[in-house]
Design brief:
Strand content of chain A: over 45%
Distance between the termini of chain B: 41 Å
Oligomer: heterodimer
Radius of gyration of chain A: 13 Å
Largest sheet of chain A: 7 strands, mixed
Distance between the termini of chain A: 36 Å
Number of helices of chain A: 0
Radius of gyration of chain B: 13 Å
Shape of chain B: globular
Structural class of chain A: mainly beta
Shape of chain A: globular
Number of strands of chain B: 10
Strand order of the largest sheet of chain B: 1-3-8-7-6
Strand content of chain B: over 45%
Largest sheet of chain B: 5 strands, antiparallel
Helix content of chain A: under 10%
Structural class of chain B: mainly beta
Order of helices and strands of chain B: EEEEEEEEEE
Chain lengths: ~110, ~110
């Protein structure tokens, strides 16, 4: 299996621009998670889906952030408009069973907002 | 509420044993996972404790005490490649596999 796939791997954009991050989970996995990692705040859960349905979006920092999972093999995290404080590494992870065991992380997208 | 504590940094020498402690307060606690992350990489799964006691996987062991809301990761025969960040991640029951991560512990292994 190819593992969790994220694109782009690096994104540099200017403040105010829209940013879309993409994730393809491992085939057959039921749950998908979006995380953000910074030095100051560590690894934060933004939102997660179970069977394509958003379960908990309490970690989404502001209305500027939105996430969708239109089907079992694709999810997007969108920031509009982006701000410099959104600069971070964004990880997508998937889990086969929806249980609290192994999550498989993608390589991450390093976002820089100038 | 949710809280999670683990040391921010630990330093040890090659060949030694190191223990990384984790205390948590997690509503609906279900189990405790440990993840490793090398600099510039993604977190990778190390170990999971659903029940009290010790789980051993090669050089790594993980322990859980539910009554004390406490766990630890034990790394034996330390190698330079073990230098990384280690995260304990309590799981929340019946919420589709939600894990609570924090700042992690940065382990530096010296020669």
């Amino acid at each position: 299996d190819a593992g969790v796939i994220q694109s782009p791997r690096h994104e540099v954009t200017e403040m105010g621009q829209e940013v879309t991050l993409r994730c393809k989970p491992i085939s057959g996995h039921n749950s998908l998670f979006w995380y953000r990692q910074t030095m100051m705040r560590g690894l934060e859960l933004l939102i997660y889906f179970n069977n394509n349905v958003p379960i908990d979006d309490s970690g989404m920092p502001e209305d500027r952030f939105s996430a969708k999972m239109p089907n079992a093999s694709f999810s997007t995290l969108k920031i509009q408009p982006s701000e410099p404080r959104d600069s971070a590494v964004y990880f997508c992870a998937s889990n086969p069973s929806g249980g609290t065991d192994t999550q498989y992380f993608g390589p991450g997208t390093r976002l820089t907002v100038l | 509420g949710q809280s999670l504590e683990q040391p921010s940094e630990v330093t040890a020498v090659e060949g030694a044993i190191v223990q990384i402690n984790c205390t948590y307060q997690t509503s609906g606690f279900y189990g405790l996972s440990w993840y490793q992350q090398h600099d510039g990489g993604a977190p990778t799964f190390l170990s999971y404790n659903a029940l009290d006691g010790l789980e051993e996987t090669g050089r790594f062991s993980s322990f859980l005490s539910r009554s004390d809301s406490y766990g630890y990761l034990l790394l034996q025969e330390l190698q330079m490649k073990d230098s990384a960040s280690y995260f304990c991640a309590p799981g929340v029951y019946n919420q589709g596999g939600k894990l609570i991560f924090g700042q992690g512990t940065e382990l530096s292994v010296k020669p």
